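Record GNAT family N-acetyltransferase, 183 aa.
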Amino acid sequence: MLFQNRKLAVRKMKAKDRYIMAQWLSDPAVLEFYEGRDQPFTPEKIDEKFLNRDDGVTRCMVDYGGTNIGYIQFYPLDEEERKIYGYEDEYIFGIDQFIGKTSYWNMGIGTLLVKSMVRYLIVEKNAYRVVMDPQVRNPRALRCYEKCGFQKVKLLPKRELHEGLYEDCWLIEYNTKGDEDGL
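=>
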């Protein structure tokens, strides 16, 4: 287990998780903002996109109260991403996540997850900043991230191909400078 915070636990993804991930990533409600409703996943596609890769991304499952409810990944930004985002050589991590079990939406768990992951990255990985690039058209996610201390940095026009269209995204960041109180 990477960390636990109250009922929330995060652990590295395992091969056996492919089936629950395929279930979540076949749900149109989940796919509306993550991957796209035109891209449902099979267990084999989970293997290809999430399990059989060596790309510096740490892929994790999210458990809440003993139930697998979601997914989160983190990774140090590479030189190309830092250049696109306009960062120098700082130690910056990116994160992406979703709650796949929709009955757990709107309960504050996403906020707890993001705050916990940011704290983990700062304390355990010495992250200076943590960034995400959510779609502009996802106000629920943006509200969650803002509650966690993320701020909009810049608009990324046509950043993400989603359901056949390139969607605008926000570059948002959590900056540890001035964060003496922590999350």
